[in-house]
UniProtKB/TrEMBL annotation:
GO terms for molecular function: potassium ion transmembrane transporter activity. This is Potassium transporter. Its main location: membrane. It is a multi-pass membrane protein. PANTHER family: OSMOTIC STRESS POTASSIUM TRANSPORTER, POTASSIUM TRANSPORTER 17-RELATED. InterPro entries: K+_transporter (IPR003855), K_trans_C (IPR053952), K_trans_N (IPR053951). It comes from the Eukaryota. The lineage of its organism: Eukaryota, Viridiplantae, Streptophyta, Embryophyta, Tracheophyta. GO terms for cellular component: membrane.
Length: 691
């Protein structure tokens, strides 16, 4: 009975989670009927053309949505997290191919190394190739970054095309409403939506699932009405031979139409990317039993209507809605478009937060808007940039076809990148038979490659927008990461050992001032070179000094008992602190919570008398008193600001990338020394400090 009770509880829990996914995960996918047909450049379409298009959409939803994402991709989670970077981190944890993990090792045997290879099997031939090729590892990292950037591009285009397509429903009952007015109203809705982001999604999230649930239920009902009323035999198009005849009949024009049909699967990546917020079972249940049937029936009803009214494809959604339910459907569509926009905006904030935590992206302000939900974040800078770009896309391009072309680039490239990374996971981690992996790769790479080739022809017609944005973001991320790694290399080369620190402190002119100081560094074996410059310039050092190293693990979250590791360094009042975090952990270095955790760990270390060396003749009571006094006096945080000076033999790539990093990290003026251009009255030190 107990077993049945637990099983029943789990089933109801999954059903509740499946209900919640409607408003968070599937907003973009389930609202795609608003803009798929209007995005197609159809010219005098016939009945067979529409049957072929519906057959393509059905098999795209079935193969990519059901087979690839619902059954395969959801199994490739990284400790419950999904998305393109989760696939990359999964590869890094099992095979030594991660540039990031190779730089952030910890020699402490007491710490769990989640990012290292844990399997008993020897690496496959493909894994050995990546381990031995720096170029291949960098290309793989760039592909993973590009996938993340494409999701950010999705966060720009989904609000624009969803809200614009929904508001366009005003023009049918009111022909006097101009296109410019619809664009203006759409821009106003988006501006209000972005201005509300600072309050967080918690306060209105309870509305999301009911809205999307209503949309998911009503659109297939309208679709069934359209099937019965206009073309009851529409489901004969499920036969793949209609696809073959479509391409044989239309040739190049049929291939180009793939740039519009690909939008029927837009938002499917969210099934995988939002895995960390729910679980595999709940997402599968929601997609297979609600979203997939809803889309199949809705597109069938739209196509049935268009077969009888072939020239109404420019407004393929609202035209097939019966007049009696037009306004209720307009209201539901507008609300659903806003919810779909919200889900992608929130996902963009999460992706940016993960990128910042991983040191892949320049520091931007990240605010946690919910005390209960750690993943609910908001970034003011990113929010306003997204707002400007979304409004610009609407006002500049306006036409749904142009935005659809841009959207198609994002959708198809993200799918293709996921296919490539999933193939590597199958070969290097799952060790699936090569025949099975080859079948998967050939089917999906061919299908998605055809979509990519079709949307690339649309680059001059608006498709360049997300591609340019994503490429620039990926370049920024790669440049930032490259500069951070060079900074680590500099610190490792010029690090200070305890003997040197002891000599510096033996100078009579150096005073130990009251208070506590946190020195942040990227190295774990030795002390940051900033310390030498700091002591020589300030002529002092705090009585309690904690050298803090941040260690990123390629896992979503680090266990609380492994988060903070404290040890004594053998000098009076000098301690080493290792703070570990995963890419789903929140980290506020100067927050009271983290500081109190570190000081509590220090107190526990002193009380346990662990690590106390004979050279430090202090009693436990005296050390605790000094720690308490330092906390009351004040706490100072010191980080290093790297400035690189490159020799004459450095490559042009080194100079360019480090100059680019300096622009991102400091300012344009500080990039000049990296290029070899001298600055007047420049302080000749390799690292500067800032308090």
């Amino acid at each position: 009975m107990c077993f049945l009770s637990v099983e029943g509880s789990s089933r109801w829990s999954n059903l509740y989670l499946a209900y919640k996914t409607l408003g968070v995960v599937f907003g973009g996918l389930v609202t795609s009927p608003l803009y798929v047909y209007p995005s197609m450049n159809l010219k005098s379409p016939t009945e067979n053309d529409y049957l072929g298009i519906y057959s393509i959409m059905f098999w795209t939803l079935t193969l990519i949505g059901v087979v690839k994402y619902a059954y395969i991709a959801l199994k490739a989670d990284d400790h419950g997290e999904g998305g393109t970077f989760a696939l990359y981190s999964l590869l890094c944890r099992h095979v030594n191919i991660g540039i990031l993990s190779s730089k952030r090792n910890d020699s402490n045997p007491g710490i769990s190394h989640s990012c290292q290879y844990e399997g008993p099997q020897k690496p496959s031939r493909l894994a050995r190739f990546f381990e031995g090729s720096v170029v291949a590892r960098r290309v793989l990292l760039f592909i993973a970054m590009l996938g993340m950037c494409m999701l950010i591009g999705d966060g720009i285009l989904t609000p624009a095309i969803s809200v614009l397509s929904a508001m366009d429903g005003l023009r049918a009952p009111f022909p006097s409403v101009s296109k410019s007015l619809v664009e203006g109203l759409s821009a106003i809705v988006l501006i209000v939506l972005f201005l509300l982001q600072k309050y967080g999604t918690s306060r209105v999230s309870f509305l999301f699932s009911p809205i999307m649930g209503t949309w998911t239920l009503t659109t297939p009902m309208v679709g069934i009405y359209g099937i019965i009323q206009h073309y009851p035999s529409i489901f004969k198009a499920l036969s793949p031979h209609y696809i073959i005849h479509f391409f044989l009949r239309n040739g190049k024009e049929g291939w180009l139409l793939l740039g519009g049909t690909v939008l029927c699967i837009t938002g499917s990546e969210a099934m995988f990317a939002d895995l960390g917020h729910f679980n595999q079972r709940s997402i599968q249940m929601a997609f297979l039993f609600t979203i997939y049937p809803s889309l199949v029936l809705t597109y069938a009803g739209q196509t049935a209507y268009l077969i009888k009214h072939p020239n109404d494809h420019d407004d393929g959604f609202y035209k097939f809605v019966p007049t009696t339910v037009y306004w209720p459907m307009f209201i539901i569509a507008t609300l659903a478009a806003i919810v779909a926009s919200q889900s992608l905006i929130s996902a963009t904030f999460s992706v940016i937060k993960q990128s910042v935590v991983l040191d892949y992206f320049p520091r931007v302000k990240v605010v946690h808007t919910s005390p209960n939900k750690e993943g609910e974040v908001y970034s003011p800078e990113v929010n306003y940039i997204l707002m400007v770009l979304c409004v610009a896309v609407i006002l500049i391009f306006g036409d749904g076809k142009d935005i659809g072309n841009a959207f198609g680039v994002v959708v198809s490239l993200v799918m293709l990148i996921t296919t490539i990374l999933l193939t590597l996971v199958m070969v290097m981690i799952w060790r699936k038979p090569l025949l099975l992996v080859g079948l998967y790769f050939v089917v999906f790479f061919t299908m998605e490659g055809a979509y990519v080739s079709a949307v690339f022809t649309k680059i001059p017609e608006g498709g360049w927008i997300p591609f340019a944005i994503s490429f620039i973001l990926a370049l920024i991320m790669f440049g930032w990461f490259y500069g951070r790694q060079r900074k680590i290399e500099y610190e490792m080369t010029h690090k200070i050992d305890l003997e040197t620190l002891s000599m510096l402190l033996s100078d009579p002119g150096i005073q130990r001032v009251p208070g506590m100081c946190f020195f942040y560094s990227n190295i774990q074996d030795g002390l940051t070179p900033i310390l030498g410059h700091y002591i020589k310039n300030m002529r002092s050092m705090h009585k309690i000094t904690v050298f803090t190293t941040l260690r990123y693990l390629l896992v979503p979250k680090v266990a609380p008992n492994e988060r903070i590791v404290i040890k004594k360094l053998g000098l009076k009042g000098v301690y080493g602190c290792l703070i570990q975090y995963g890419y789903a952990d929140s980290l506020n270095l100067e927050g009271d919570d983290l500081v109190s955790q570190v000081t509590d760990s220090l107190q526990a270390l002193i009380e346990n008398h662990s690590g106390l060396l004979p050279s430090v003749p202090l009693s436990i009571e005296e050390e605790l008193l000094e720690l308490e006094t330092a906390k009351l006096t004040g706490i100072v945080h010191i980080r290093g600001k790297a400035r690189f000076y490159i020799g004459k033999n450095s490559t042009l790539f080194d100079k360019a990338m480090l100059a680019f990093y300096e622009v991102l990290h400091n300012n344009c003026r500080s990039a000049l020394p990296a290029l070899g251009i001298p600055l007047p009255q420049r302080i000749e030190v390799g690292m500067l400090y800032e308090a």
